[in-house]
Specification:
α15 packs across α16. The strands form four sheets. The protein has a five-stranded parallel β-sheet, with helices on both faces. A three-stranded mixed β-sheet has the order 10-11-12. Strands 1-2 form a two-stranded antiparallel sheet. The chain starts with about 25 loop residues before the first strand and ends with a helix. Helices cover about 50% and strands about 10% of the residues. By secondary structure, the chain is α/β, with parallel strands linked by helices. A hairpin with a 5-residue loop joins β1 and β2.
Length: about 450
């Protein structure tokens, strides 16, 4: 028997006619749905979305806590990639461990709410602030994103909203909101949004104090509406909702001029010279920028231009030391992803062994110290030194070259690399075997005797 079609005045789902509901919405030919059925379907969909998100979050948190490394394990991982900065690595290891441990449900029965401790890193450019944050995210296997505070402006002005920082984190999590809510967001150049000071200005400080005000609730923890396509928010745009309560915010900046603020607070009494004209130990410390940054207090950050509310939301403050020449040499060779190792892999793909003399490494570090940009200068210097060599690299491999040694003269631009081919390598090997032959014969004679 053929099924009876719905009349034009009847809902295709509940069967009520036009007089029993407020509105009937037409669909494909012969089908209708009433406003009450639309409300029921909407509530069911939202309920399923919430249940699915809760299950995903509850499943993701225990997995992270189950494999959460201890502070000593976190520091050991940082040691593989970060040279020096021992004190900073210990502080960050404890802070990160406590941050993710607070996601556990074990403490909630005590009635005490554990607040998160965001981190503020102070240090000159190229000392490893961004590298530390990236290593932490890699170890914990959580989403990680880097944002630049200088691109953010106050709402209503040309620039980016603070929510665009969260969008980068969501994108790194492949738009899995539950995963992004446990990620790490590193905000660089945070010192550049210091307020302009007490001077009255005609123009507003749209990229300074206003941005700090916008970041307050974001860093502390709130449900934020993020535009999925980026850009400014507008009423017609659909938003992604993300809770920032469990996101670890790490802010970093060079804070140039902070040393002078600390020096003024400490006073001039400890700075001076002895009767013999020798500078005192306290004076030497006072002239050391790294030592001065290590003495930073919240009142110094406020005098620099950060508002008190913003400083209070970054309770863990630690300082990174400026890298010296020895540290730069170690950075070239020791970390798991050291620059020398990277170039050795590139050369090995062409069947050539790459070596650096100790004098060459010292010369590279010395050139980096002159640029005063920390470890960032190492790659650009290496690219300059290796450019011509890598240009001829494929041709060298076809000519039987098996090894390449970079000397100090190559770094200084006064010489060429030392190349060796298969014939020289085979002659060196045979001569080495010849030299080892007499001891073997004498050992045989002694056994026969």
């Amino acid at each position: 028997m053929a099924k009876k079609k719905n009349s034009p005045d009847e809902c295709s789902f509940c069967g009520r006619d036009n007089d029993q509901v407020e509105r009937l919405i037409s669909g494909p030919p012969g089908t209708y749905i009433c406003n009450e059925c639309v409300d029921v379907c909407s509530s069911l969909l939202h309920s399923n979305d919430r249940d699915g998100a809760d299950e995903e979050t509850q499943g993701a948190v225990p997995d992270l806590l189950k494999d959460l490394p201890s502070p000593s394990q976190i520091k050991a991982h940082l040691d593989e990639y970060i040279i020096g900065q021992e004190r900073t690595k210990r502080i960050i290891s404890v802070a990160v461990y406590n941050h993710y441990k607070r996601l556990s449900n074990n403490y909630k029965n005590s009635g005490i709410e554990l607040e998160k401790s965001n981190i503020l890193l102070l240090g000159p450019t190229g000392c490893g602030k961004t590298a530390i944050a990236r290593c932490l995210a890699k170890l914990l296997n959580v989403p990680f994103a880097i944002g630049d505070a200088t691109t953010i402006t106050e709402a209503g002005y040309v620039g980016e909203d603070v929510e665009n920082l969260l969008l980068r984190l969501i994108q790194s999590a492949d738009f899995e909101i539950a995963q992004a809510e446990m990620g790490i967001l590193y905000i660089d150049e945070i010192d550049k949004i210091g307020r302009s000071g007490g001077n009255v200005s005609i123009t507003r400080d749209v990229s300074g104090e206003g941005v700090q005000q916008s970041l307050l609730k974001l860093i502390e923890g709130t449900v934020s509406n993020v535009p999925p396509a980026g850009g400014r928010k507008h009423p017609e745009q659909k938003y992604l909702q993300i809770n920032t309560q469990n996101i670890l915010f790490i802010c970093g900046g060079a804070f140039s001029g902070m040393g002078e603020i600390v020096r003024r607070r400490l006073g001039d009494g400890v700075v001076g010279f002895t009767l013999d004209g020798e500078e005192t130990e306290a004076s030497l410390n006072e002239n050391d920028e790294s030592w001065l940054l290590a003495q930073v207090r919240p009142e110094d950050l406020i005098e620099f231009g950060l508002i008190p509310e913003f400083v209070g939301r970054l309770p863990v403050v630690t300082t990174l030391d400026e890298l010296n020449e020895d540290a730069l040499i170690n950075i070239l060779t020791q970390p798991a992803n050291a620059l020398v190792k990277q170039y050795q892999v590139l050369f090995d793909m062409d069947g050539i062994q790459l070596d650096f003399t100790q004098d060459a490494l010292i010369a590279i570090a010395a050139r980096a110290m002159e640029r005063k940009t920390g470890a960032r200068a190492l790659r650009s210097i290496m690219e300059e030194v290796m450019l011509d060599i890598m240009f001829d690299l494929p041709d060298h491999s076809n000519k039987g070259i098996v090894s390449c040694t970079i000397t100090e003269d190559v770094v200084l631009g006064t010489g060429k690399p030392v190349l060796s081919n298969k014939e020289l390598s085979s002659k060196a090997t045979s001569s080495a075997k010849t030299k080892k032959t007499p001891p073997r014969k004498s050992a045989t004679k002694s056994k026969r005797a």
